[in-house]
Every structure is written in C-alpha cells, then in structure tokens.
Amino acid sequence: MISPESRRIVSRRTRPAKSPLSQEAIVSTALELLSREGMAGLSLRKVAAALDTGPASLYVYVADLNELHVLVLDRVLGEVELPPEQAGDWRNRLKALLRSYFGVLLARPGLAQVALSTIPSGPNMMALTEALLSLLAEGGVDLRRAAWAIDLLLLQTAAVAAEQDNRRSQDESELARVAEAVHSVSAEQHPNIHALGDELVSGKGDRHDWALDVLINGVLSTPRP
Amino acid sequence: MISPESRRIVSRRTRPAKSPLSQEAIVSTALELLSREGMAGLSLRKVAAALDTGPASLYVYVADLNELHVLVLDRVLGEVELPPEQAGDWRNRLKALLRSYFGVLLARPGLAQVALSTIPSGPNMMALTEALLSLLAEGGVDLRRAAWAIDLLLLQTAAVAAEQDNRRSQDESELARVAEAVHSVSAEQHPNIHALGDELVSGKGDRHDWALDVLINGVLSTPRP
DNA sequence: ACCTGAACACCGTTCAAGT
DNA sequence: ACCTGAACACCGTTCAAGT
C-alpha cells in the first residue's frame, strides 16, 4: 500500500509545477484571471487552461459557472475592511465600510457585474451583512428596517460600481455619443436637459459619497410600511 | 431607371415572406426574441436566423452587439408611461413614473441587466430624463441636485429590477442555499442575522415602493456638497 | 451598397472512457 | 473518486467574394 506522503512525492517529481486540483486552487486561478483580464478572463476554459487541464476536470469541484462566480465574489469580499470601533460615529463607520466594499468591487474589472447577478451567501458576505446591521442598530434603526436598508445600500453600491466600471471599460466613442445626444436637444423640446448640458454626463466619479448620505438620510426618515 | 415602387413589387413576387433588412426590422426581431427567450435569445446569430439570413448581414445596420442592446433598450423605453398632470402631486407622479420604468424593465427577462450595462441615449431615454427632472423641479429640488438624483433613481430602479429578474430566473436551489446560510449562523457569531432569520431572505418583492420613498426623502434632505 | 458563406477564435456543458 | 479527450451546441466578429 502506498502512503499519501509517498504518492505526493512521486507526483511532485513527475509534474513539479502542477498543483493538485481543488476548489481553492480553481477560485484562486479564476481570481488571478479576473484581475488581469476582467470579466472576459473569468471563463471555465481559461481557468482550466491556466491549471493545465481540460474544462471538464473542473466540474468535480464546481457545479457550473455561476457557482464559480459566487465563490470568487465571496473570496474577494474577505478584503472588505470592517471599520474598528474607534473610527468615528456609526454613520462614518457605515460609510467607511460601504466605501471599502465599493473599492473592492471596483478593484477588479467586471466584479461589480458579478455582484449584481449573483446572490452571495458565503462567510464573508455574512460578516459584511452582520457589520452593516449592527452599525444601523447603533444608529437607532430598528432591526426590521435595517434588514431592508442593507439590501438597498449593498445594491446601490454594487450598481454604482458596475456603472463606473462600465464607463471605464467602454471606449470614448460611447461617452461621446451620450454627450452628443444631450447637447443636441433643443430648449423647447427638453428645457431641463438643455439647461443642464454637461452637468448630466460629466463628473460621475465623486457622487457615491453623496449617494450614501442620501440613502442613510432616507433610511432614517422612512419607516417601513 | 427602375422606380422604387416597381422594385418593391418585383422583390415581393420573388421573396414574398422576406421583409427587407433594416435597423428597425432587426430591433423588432431582437425584441421578440428577448420577450420569448430572455437574455439568452438576444444574440446576433438568432436575430439573423429569425430574419432568414446570416449573422454577417446584420453588421450593415448595427455596429455590434452592444449597439443592438442600446437600440432595443431605447425602443422598449417608449412603453414607459409619462404620468399626466392630473395624476396627483409631484411625488406621486414621480413614483408612478419610476414604477412604470420598473415594470417595463421587468416585463422582459434580462432587460434590466441590459439597462445596467449600457448607457442609453435614445429619444425615449431623453423624454424619461426630462420628465424626471421636471417632476423634481416641481418638488422644489434645484436642477443641479436633480441631475444627480435622477441618476440615483434610475440606477436603483434598474438594479432592483435586475435583482428580482435574477431571483425569478434562478432555480429554487439557489434561494435555498441562501436561506440555509442565513439559518446556519449562530447567535454568538452573528447575533443580528440570527435574530432576523427569514426576514433577510423573504418578501423582497414589495420593497421597491419603500425604496423609492427612501430615495426621495433622502434627496430632499441631502444637498449637494 | 448590400448581402453572403465560410472561417476564426472563442464559449459552457456532457459523456464515455480511462486510471 | 478523479481526470481526460472529444464532442455538442452554441457565441461575436471578420473577410473575401459575390450581386
């Protein structure tokens, strides 16, 4: 009988560079590809190729592409920084937490889209959820309202991240098309759009902070029906 | 020289069922496929097949898949109902307008995702934008703040629609996985999640109205920095 | 100018066959 | 139990050749 140790040594000698397949290795490789190539790199075939195997081999560890998305997302959510209690009042800590979530989603191209199209349930998402709930509770929001509020806050943050990521990856001609459409409306047809002009298309970068204040103020002043 | 009329008659006789290719015909066909098959039906190859031609033929009228998305989205936005002035105060009309937008996005599976990943600039989007701006102006929101607010309102509405569409198209096992994750946390680890339980995963359907009030209240009480 | 067939470079997923 | 090659049923896009 061959012990596990000797088996490992033999396999190391014959194929020194190839680590054994595992869900963890698959997720790590997928994350590397996502960081380098964006959403386009996050394919089962590319992950398999990077691990020097065929795509069929991955199905032992991962049910389908959607499960890979869920796993990659939760892995990355481990990078979200939960603010310490000394970091200010609950509102500032809440905003810091959501800004960290925002930054993590924007750090990899395409990740925000993944966050919008999957329903994560991993341990890191649970930790983030719990932290948000307890910050809102500290702010005097009752728990049932907080449950609805964190959905709103997480969804809005992911959506803004996805929008900015789109803008980043789209060529300039797309943005020029929008700007042209806005400028070509007449004052009679659409007076408000005409009056705003560039204000409607430019400077989308620094609105997230304002958006967070809008949401927090709104949550504080709007009880559940 | 052959007049357009005689040319049309000849072409009718030889190929009675096949309408001539045009951007309009392509968008209509794409919309039919989207309604029937969802996002999976919205492919250039399927549109071409439905029009009885090869995929290469479409590139005369449409630059790429993204442009088709933009065109389909703006076509559908024509169905959004702009509320008449008699329909109540500005707040109720604003909510009615966004609910109409919400309903249009949800009427076709996958359309909300399209709305989140494209930057529309067609005439129907302009009309919707103008209507939102003028309703907010009526509510006393200054125009510069309104410009930021409508981004927030449109993005949130599309994101909630996309989330509900996801939920609808995903199999129940996905939702069961989330519910299981929530129920399996201990009271010591995550007391707030534990206390909420099902409240966190169920009844996501009727929150959009509350979300709209949160956003409107937030916008009213949060000036631009 | 418009249309087409064929090709290129990809996808996710399944399945029978191997170890 | 795990891995694999090969196949199936798709994609978007390009290009040379036709009309």
What does this structure look like?
The structure is a homodimer of 225-residue chains. Chain A has 225 residues and is mainly α. Chain A has 2 domains: 20-62, Orthogonal Bundle (Arc Repressor Mutant, subunit A), CATH 1.10.10.60; 81-167 and 193-225, Tetracycline Repressor, domain 2 (Orthogonal Bundle), CATH 1.10.357.10. Helices cover 65% and strands 0% of the residues of chain A. In chain A, helix 4 crosses helix 7. The radius of gyration of chain A is 23 Å and the shape is flat. The model of chain A is unreliable at 1-17 (pLDDT under 50). Chain A binds a DNA duplex (19 and 19 nucleotides) through loops.
Précis, in short:
The structure is a homodimer of 225-residue chains. Chain A is an all-alpha fold and 225 residues long.
